[in-house]
Structure prediction request, 329 residues.
Amino acid sequence: RPRVLSGIQPTADSFHVGNYLGALRQWVDLQATHETFYSIVDLHAITVEHEPKLLRQRTRVAAAQLLALGIDPERSTLFVQSQVPAHTQLSWVMECLTGFGEAGRMTQFKDKSGKGGADHTSVGLFTYPILQAADILAYQADAVPVGEDQRQHLELTRNLAQRFNSRFGKTLRVPEPYILKATAKIYDLSEPRAKMSKSSPGGSLDLLADVKASVKKIKSAVTDTEREIRYDEENKPGVSNLLSLLSVFTGTSIPDLEVSYQGKGYGDLKGDLAQVWAEFVTPLQAAVAGYLADPAELDRILSAGAARATAVASKTVADVYQKVGFLTV
Ligand code: ATP
Ligand code: MG
Prediction:
């Protein structure tokens, strides 16, 4: 079976619909056909200022959401990144293969570092795409299911794998991105030209948010001053985003939705989306609460996952360390 690796940061109290459609839905589906490794990437979460207690809580909530969405710990290796030393061990080698300018071209860094000035931007935030490359390469992954925003980091990962292989001999598998076009980029509800993000919660549609609050958010989503319900990303980004979401959750194609909304208003579109959203998250929230009721069991699942992940990833580290000329222990 081909291998899959992907990760998600425990940087918020909930995952949002962009995380779900861009990545997590594929995580669940790929379990049927691939050998799957899924990580809650807490090392990445400390690249920005954080609160320790909150991080611990969010890591468990992340695990509970993944289980509730259908990640099966029997079929998938579900683990917390900081519990598997191979990631940081491999990361150092990858950092030494990365050009300073090459790292500086990562657009996510440019976006995220802008905010507080140079002294509030950690070196970790700068090097995080390299740690991410190590996350993937440690498992010799064939495919990486992610959203469109991660494409550039995947390209860096591929370049580093190829560079390592050409310098030290074939060692690392060069992974392919697995990005589904229709849901690769979900937009912010209040700022429909920006990516929905955990770090800008104002316009994100969150799996664990109070359903009534989410309905309100959907109803106040930014649209445009026309009245026509039509898919046009360029001129009608808000309406197009709502159509994409409704299309996925109802299984109806966008052209069919356009036909069925002829003569109707934005309020109708939003009302229908609010309804399918409520139907989707209500049972999900109950399942998450069930997993969170037994944190010891959650921790046990994660420890078992970490042991399995370590067994695979430490082999890659040993191979890489031998190839670069370190003495073997
Ligand atoms: P943060 O703001 O903390 O970076 P995030 O919302 O970008 O949070 P990540 O944990 O960085 O979430 O990413 C988890 C996965 O979700 C990645 O595969 C990423 O590509 C995907 N993803 C994130 N936002 C979106 C989005 N708006 N549309 C589609 N996929 C997304
Ligand atoms: Mg992100």
